[in-house]
């Protein structure tokens, strides 16, 4: 064996013994699963500070509780909580659910003093009535149930 030959003979034989790569007929005929219709969600998302401020000012006139989900696209615990937030939004029709991306609306997150994600603020008439920091589904649900029936 020469100095330039870094593979031993048995390894060369194994490499030569592999069949050439080819697509199988079944692979070519495989089709993607049918696309499912997009899920409808009762969770509102704001992409501009002006839209958020207009909504928030109007919400101060209502007794309806708002749950604000401060989230980020890169946040795994936030992604973990997404199905739960959708589930709660469907279950509690008397509560408004809002999603705010902290990277998109940094000023809004700053106004509420958000330092960790996910953070869920429960608000009535413009005032924070409770808070859940972290991916705590049961705690969030308990606080929603506790506060949704209380008139303030």
UniProtKB/TrEMBL annotation:
Keyword annotations from UniProtKB, A to Z: Disulfide bond, Electron transport, Redox-active center, Transport
Every Thioredoxin domain range: 12-149
The organism's place on the tree of life at top rank: Eukaryota
Family matches, as InterPro entries: Thioredoxin-like_sf, Thioredoxin_domain, Thioredoxin_H-type-like
PANTHER family (alphabetical): THIOREDOXIN
Protein name in the entry: Thioredoxin domain-containing protein
Organism per entry: Nepenthes gracilis
